[in-house]
């Protein structure tokens, strides 16, 4: 089901092609054509890029197909790109983060997401193997400043990989999603794409489809991932600022609807201006505590609560229908 009224979506997938990732990469190759055909049909104005990477000293460090590459060429690339070996436990994720920022042609005013699929972690900036002396934490922050949300699909259980991916996801507002069985990688990638697709309709619809398809045989990691993707869209995340104080940030919409939501203050100002010119009063004086206890006050509060509930239910869909304009 294709939707309209959303801003363009730039979605990049990056795959670690070193030896330990062989099963996952083969699963992606088997499903890439169907995945891209479906995503480009369902998500309006979607542009996809692919990054394959090994490590320094491999047959290649990175191979990239930029946004704007045809679906046929993306499929051909995914199916034919060579596997690599990896020279040490870390791989060149720091280079991937940098090149995702500098070599991909992110469109102006687009919603932007990068999906990292791998089982390792980057070289430290002081490592002798870090060929270009890239600071992966600095690159993560620069991606965040560019407006790129990074999702990390962690294959395996390396603690170093988990720490790296947790940091990247937290800084950029993404998620770390643990993949236990390589067969589930297709569902992971599709669920992330639909989450970034802009509305709960696609995300929740895909979850229902997967649960109905597999039933009791649904792998545990896929079930957990679907739940996390759904819950994270309405989660409240506690963070600490530089001074050590705690703040709460509500993450109730995807980045595409966040852009639409950002336009609401301007709409509110326009409403205030129109009200002033017509003589209407928007702000009422607060009721006293004693008045709030009267039956009339309680009835008014009940109506207000019902209205707020209605807004909570219908506002996300209304926001998703807004047409973005620069």
From TrEMBL:
<dbReference type="InterPro" id="IPR002035">
    <property type="entry name" value="VWF_A"/>
</dbReference>
<feature type="region of interest" description="Disordered">
    <location>
        <begin position="237"/>
        <end position="305"/>
    </location>
</feature>
<feature type="compositionally biased region" description="Low complexity">
    <location>
        <begin position="237"/>
        <end position="294"/>
    </location>
</feature>
<protein>
    <recommendedName>
        <fullName>VWFA domain-containing protein</fullName>
    </recommendedName>
</protein>
<feature type="domain" description="VWFA">
    <location>
        <begin position="10"/>
        <end position="192"/>
    </location>
</feature>
<dbReference type="InterPro" id="IPR036465">
    <property type="entry name" value="vWFA_dom_sf"/>
</dbReference>
<feature type="compositionally biased region" description="Basic residues">
    <location>
        <begin position="295"/>
        <end position="304"/>
    </location>
</feature>
<dbReference type="Pfam" id="PF00092">
    <property type="entry name" value="VWA"/>
</dbReference>
């Amino acid at each position: 089901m294709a939707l309209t009224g959303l801003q363009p979506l730039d979605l990049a997938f990056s795959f670690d092609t070193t030896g330990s990732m062989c099963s996952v990469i083969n699963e992606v190759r088997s499903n890439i054509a169907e995945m891209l055909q479906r995503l480009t049909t369902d998500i309006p104005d979607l542009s996809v890029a692919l990054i394959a990477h090994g490590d320094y000293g491999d047959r290649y460090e990175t191979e990239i197909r930029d946004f704007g590459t045809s679906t046929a060429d993306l499929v051909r690339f995914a199916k034919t790109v060579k596997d690599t070996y990896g020279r040490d436990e870390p791989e060149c994720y720091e280079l991937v983060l940098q090149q995702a920022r500098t070599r991909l042609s992110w469109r102006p005013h687009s919603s932007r997401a990068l999906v990292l699929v791998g089982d390792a972690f980057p070289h430290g900036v002081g490592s002798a193997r870090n060929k270009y002396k890239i600071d992966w934490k600095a690159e993560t922050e620069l991606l965040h400043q560019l407006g790129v949300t990074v999702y990390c699909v962690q294959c395996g259980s390396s603690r170093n990989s988990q720490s790296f991916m947790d940091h990247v996801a937290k800084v950029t507002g993404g998620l770390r999603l643990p993949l236990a069985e390589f067969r589930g990688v297709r569902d992971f990638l599709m669920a992330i794409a639909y989450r970034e697709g802009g509305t709960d309709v696609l995300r929740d619809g895909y979850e229902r489809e997967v649960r109905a398809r597999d039933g009791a045989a649904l792998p545990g990691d896929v079930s957990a991932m679907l739940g996390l993707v759904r819950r994270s869209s309405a989660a409240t995340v506690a963070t600490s600022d530089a001074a050590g104080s705690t703040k709460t940030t509500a993450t109730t919409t995807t980045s595409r609807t966040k852009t639409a939501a950002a336009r609401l203050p301007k709409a509110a100002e326009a409403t205030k201006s129109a009200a002033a010119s017509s003589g209407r009063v928007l702000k009422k004086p607060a009721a006293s505590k004693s008045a709030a206890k009267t039956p009339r006050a309680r009835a008014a509060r009940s109506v207000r609560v019902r209205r707020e509930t209605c807004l909570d239910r219908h506002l996300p869909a209304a926001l998703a229908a807004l047409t973005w304009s620069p």
